[in-house]
Amino acid sequence: MKKNINIAIVGLGQIGNHLFNELKTKKKDIELKTEKKINLIALSAKNKNKKRKFKINKKIFFKNPLDIIRNLNVDILFEVVGKSDGISKKIVETALKNKIHVITPNKALIAKHGDYLSKIAEKNKVNLEFEASVAGGIPILRTIKESLATNKINKVYGILNGTCNYILSEMEKNADTFSNVLKKAKLLGYAEPLNPKLDLNGYDAFAKVRILSSLSFHKKISNNKCLMEGIESIEYKDIDIASQLNYRIKLLGITELIGNRLFERVHPCLVKKDTYIGNVNGVMNAVIVNGKPIGESILQGEGAGPGPTSSALMSDLLSILRGNIKYPFGLPHKKRKKANVYNVNLYSNSLYMRLEVKDKPGVLSQITKLLAKRKISVERLIQMPDHKRKTASIVIITHKANEYNAQRCINSLKSNKNILKNPILIRLL
Ligand SMILES: NC(=O)c1ccc[n+]([C@@H]2O[C@H](COP(=O)([O-])OP(=O)(O)OC[C@H]3O[C@@H](n4cnc5c(N)ncnc54)[C@H](OP(=O)(O)O)[C@@H]3O)[C@@H](O)[C@H]2O)c1
Q1: Is 282 left (phi over 0), alpha (psi -120 to 50) or beta?
Q2: 28 catalytic, yes or no?
Q3: Which pLDDT does position 285 carry in this prediction?
Q4: What is the pTM of this model?
Q5: What CATH number does the domain located at 345-428 have?
């Protein structure tokens, strides 16, 4: 690689702004550690005149980011716009085809087009780096790709969305409702003010799960239908009951190979309070890797925000500057096969169920009969009557139950006249 390296940043929002400043303030440090000279020669964002946190040189500002590639000699381009398609895909694709290394924190883009883009990168012998796309500042991708390169990984799981973890932790800490805590999260900048849906419904964590699966199991990025549930319907009541049973509720992203078949899922889980993951609270993320011979390895840290995300972007930059230019997903594109998909209906898990019922004789036996019909056996059953309303909450922890049977059972419970609300079902880890 040549000595003088030209850099461009496309996108000057929360992350791009911070990255711009990091490149300026850490220039000497980067040059010392890589023996390269770096020059920021181009910037792009939608609006040239927008007031930004740091003063930018308008002379190197491009309204159309594709003009940077057409007109300048760029070596490394940061894509920090954030769309899964459109301009983000176009700029990354064009840069790679023009033999420009690309660094991006864009999980939506990588989860959707990572295979296609990595093929172009390999063909053009440049790198596509995306450390910041999963768990922000936690160096999980490079750890899997490099430090654990010869391990046989069979499961990766963790807390991959700081917004959801913050909301669930605050609901527990302050005995508060989901909607109140969401408002607070928006004010603090932990949840997107206009559209936090993609964080809350599990979609964001799921994009990260897909990237983790691909790197961990050396497969193409899956596009399978998967088990995806968010936290929007979690009530404080369940957090409270779970707490009394010594559990916490966490939104987990889980990917594993079961009999060589890929099983990816994102859903709320009851985790024991005395486990590591049960004590990762607030906006923190944590990722646990199970592999051989490493055993269980845990990385915890800040999963979002300009500081941690820029830290991961800088590690990608140094990796490229040091000449570590190899396959984006750890092995050649051709060698990564499509994953066989695990049939979710076969999965067995212990379950937490909460049923709001009419408090009258015979209701409990109707419920236990329905459970028995679906071969779901009860480990624990708690009944909490509300004498004034003549209702009761019934909480059931089951032994391992088959997913298909559990869903059938929930459907039957939903149509039972003595059950007053849709049953709550949360899986145990
Ligand atoms: N925020 C986080 O904590 C975080 C954490 C991890 C990963 N990420 C990822 O980082 C990426 C950026 O996120 P962000 O929070 O920085 O987003 P953001 O604040 O919305 O910034 C997006 C930037 O893209 C620019 N842009 C939009 N359309 C453009 C176009 N056609 N041409 C050139 N520039 C265009 C915008 O320009 P204007 O400024 O002129 O509007 C803005 O500067 C996303 O992929 C996100 O998933 C973010």
Answers
A1: left
A2: no
A3: 97
A4: 0.96
A5: 3.30.70.260
